[in-house]
Amino acid sequence: MSQGQFVLGAFIPGTLSGSAWRLPEAPLDTFRSLEHYQYIARKLEAGRFHSLFFNDTLDVKLDLALQRGPNSVRWDPLILAPALAASTRHIGLIATASTTYNEPYNVARKYAALDHLSGGRAGWNLVTSLGGGENFNRQEHVEHDDRYARAEEFYDVVSGLWDSWADDAFIQDKASGTWLDIDKLHVLDHQGEHFQVRGPLNVSRSPQGHPVVAQAGASVAGKRLAARVGELIFTAQHTIEQGRAFYQETKAAAAAFGRGANELKILPGVSPVVGKTLAEAQAKYDRQQELLEPKAFLSSISKFVSLGYDLSELPFDEVVPLPPEHFTTNTHQSRQKLVFDLIRRERPTVRQLFNQLTSGGHRILIGTPESIADDLHAWYEAGAADGFNIMFSGLHSAIDDFVDCVVPELQRRGLFQREYAGTTLRENLGLPYRTNRFF
Amino acid sequence: MSQGQFVLGAFIPGTLSGSAWRLPEAPLDTFRSLEHYQYIARKLEAGRFHSLFFNDTLDVKLDLALQRGPNSVRWDPLILAPALAASTRHIGLIATASTTYNEPYNVARKYAALDHLSGGRAGWNLVTSLGGGENFNRQEHVEHDDRYARAEEFYDVVSGLWDSWADDAFIQDKASGTWLDIDKLHVLDHQGEHFQVRGPLNVSRSPQGHPVVAQAGASVAGKRLAARVGELIFTAQHTIEQGRAFYQETKAAAAAFGRGANELKILPGVSPVVGKTLAEAQAKYDRQQELLEPKAFLSSISKFVSLGYDLSELPFDEVVPLPPEHFTTNTHQSRQKLVFDLIRRERPTVRQLFNQLTSGGHRILIGTPESIADDLHAWYEAGAADGFNIMFSGLHSAIDDFVDCVVPELQRRGLFQREYAGTTLRENLGLPYRTNRFF
C-alpha cells in the first residue's frame, strides 16, 4: 500500500438489510442467489476494494421483528466465501466464524483451505457470537467473560495449528518417493483449560502464513483480544475525537502486546448514501427510512441494548430519556455502550436516534462524492482511521454509486489505490507476512 | 434418468493418491491448487458424471507411511465444494462431514447454503470418521457404537432443521413490509440424548428440499444407518455375487424402513486403468505399482485392519496366512472385513493382496474401454449396482482417459446419459424431492 492511501473494506449483509429489500429496484430472493453476491464481489473488486466482509448469526430471533425484518436467514459465510473466491481474483474475503460454537481444529482447517483456494485472500472475523446457545446443546447463550476466555485460547490453538508445517515441508521428491520432510512438522499438543488439541493440522501452511484476523470486540475483554490478535479492527465511532481516541488507545494496547502500529488496521464503519447533489442523496435516504417500521425497530432495539424502557412507546419528537447508569447485557456491550453514550452526548429526539441507529450504529454519510471524500479524508488525516469499513445494505445500485462515483473521487485525490498493491490480502493491506513460530 | 441407464459418481482424493504423484506427468502441489480441482470437476461434467465426491479425514496419522504417502494434507471438502459449485453448472458435489466432530446446527446450515449456492447440487457424505478424537478434546477416537448412536440422532436433527421453513415462507411483500409468514416456520425443539437444538435453521429450504445424503457404513450399525437415511450408498464389493447380495440386502433393509427401492442408489467403487489395448492398460497399472513402496504399505495396512501379523515381513510370493477369527478394530470394521474375507476367499499371495489393496479395497478394472464397459454392464444387468463410484487417483490423464474413451463407449451402448436429465442432483439421480415433513 502506498504511503497516504487508506484501506476500504465492504460490509455486506446476508440479505438486503433494513428496508432496502422493500425498494422497487430491490431483487427478491437474494438469500437464494449466488449471482447476487457474485455481482457485489465483482463490482467491489472493479472498485479496488481491499476486502469484502460477511458477518454472521447462529440463530433466528423469535421476536416481533422476525416477520418484518430480512435478517432471519443467511448463508454460512464459510460456504459463501469459497464460491466468491472462485468468482474473483483480487479482493479479500473475510468470513465470520464463532469461537463459542465451533471447534478450533475445524476453524483452523477451513480458513487455511480458504486461504489456499483463494490464493491468499482469506480473512477470519473472529467473533464470540451474540447468541445461539439454544442451537448448541445449551439452555442459553454462554456468558460474556466465558466466551472471551474461550476465544483467547481458541485463537492460540488455531494459530498454533496454522504453524503445523514449515513452508517447505512438502518436498514431493518423486525419485525417492519422499512426500514430506518429517522434521518440518510440528505437533502442537495443546493442553489448555478449554481445549486439548494434538495436531498437526491436515492442511499445509497457506499463502499468507496465517489468514488475516479481523476483530470487532468493543467490551473490555473484546478490546483486549483485538489488541492482542486483531489485524483488521472494525469499530463504530461517531465523532473524529472519539475515533482518534479509540485509534490511539487500540494501537497503544497492541504495542503493549509487542505489536507494531502497522500490524493492525483500524476501520471505523460508515454507511454512505451517495447522490449527485446533497438533496438527491437526502431524498434517497428518506425514501428508505420511510419504508422502515419505526415502531417495530424501536421496540426491538430497546430490548437489544436493555434500555429499561421502550422507545416505541414515546412520541417521535420527544427527547429520549437518559439510560440506566450500569451496563447489564450479556451479549453486545459495545452496541449498548454506543447507544447509551449517544443518548447521553447528543440528547436526541426519538426520531434522531432512530435515524442514527438504523445504520446499525455506524455513522451515516449522506452526500455527494465530494462531501463523502472530504469526510473520509478528514478522519484519515486526523489519525482516526487507517481506512473504513463501508456498510452497504446489499442493494446493487448503492454499491454501484459508491464504486462509480466515490471511489474515482478518492483516487483522484490520491487517497485510494488505483491498482491492487500485491497478490495476497496481507500484501494489499500492508500487513506483514506471518512467519512460522516453530520453523 | 432414463430407464436402463446407470449412475456414475467420481471419487477424487484430497491429493494424488497412491503412487500417482510420483509419475512424471503428475503436477506438484495439487494440495495448494484450486485449478487442479477445477480441471477435474469440469472434465467430469463434460463427461456427464452425476457427481463428484470428496472423502475426508480429521487428523494426520503419525505413522511410518506419513513421510512417503500423500494423504497427510487435504482441504476441508466443505470449503472446496462451494468453489467448485461456482466453477461448474451441472455436476453434483458431495462433501464429507463427520457427525462425531461437528455440531448438527452447523452441518445443517452449511449443506443448506451449499445447496442454494449450487442450484441444488449438494450432497452430504455422512461419516462418523475413522479418527481425530485427539484433535477434538478427547484422549482417543470415540467408540464405534457411540459414534453411530450419535450419528443417528445427528441426522434426525439435521434433517429436522432442513424442514424449518415451508418452501413459501418468505413472502417478501414489499407493499406491506412483510418479509415472512410466521406460520410457515417450524421450531424443531429437539431434546435428545446427544443433542438439544431449538432451531429454526437460519437458512431457508434449499432447492432439493434436502441435500442428497450419501453413506458408506458397512458395519452392522453403519448398514442400519445407510438403510434408514442413505440415498447414495458407496460400497466395496469384489464379485458380482457379493455385489448382488449386498444390493438385495440393502434395498430390503431400506424397505423395512418404509423406503422404496428408487429412494437409494447403490454404487460399488471401481478403480479403472484404461488403455487402447489390455497390454497398454496393464503397463500403465504396473508402472504405478512399481512406484508404490510395498513394504511401507503392507506394514501400514497390517496395523490398519489389526491383522495380527505384519505382511511386510513375509516373502512377496508367499500365500498370506489366515487372519484372526474375530474382528477387533474400533474404526474401520468394513475395511477389516473386506481384507479378512479376501484373504479367506482367495488365499492370495502377498503380491496379489498388495495389488488388490492398493486400490483402497475397491475392484481394479484394468482394460480397454470395451472391456471396462462390459464389466460395468454385467454388474448393472445382474442387479449388483445402480451405478458405480469411479475411484480416481486424481491424475488428470486418468480422468481424461475415462471421460474421453470409456464414457462414449457407455453412451454408445445406451448405458449412460448423454445429457443431464434435470437441474438438481436429485433430479439427475432419479431420487425423489424431499418434501417438508412439517408443511
From TrEMBL, chains A, B:
Similarity comment text for this entry: Belongs to the NtaA/SnaA/DszA monooxygenase family.
InterPro entries the UniProt entry points to: Diverse_substr_monoxygenases, Luciferase-like_dom, Luciferase-like_sf, NTA_MOA
Protein known as: LLM class flavin-dependent oxidoreductase
Residues annotated as domain Luciferase-like: 39-384
Keywords recorded for this protein, A-Z: Flavoprotein, FMN, Monooxygenase, Oxidoreductase
Entry-linked Gene3D superfamilies: Luciferase-like domain
Keyword flag Oxidoreductase: yes
Pfam families in UniProt: Bac_luciferase (PF00296)
Record GO terms (molecular function): monooxygenase activity; oxidoreductase activity, acting on paired donors, with incorporation or reduction of molecular oxygen
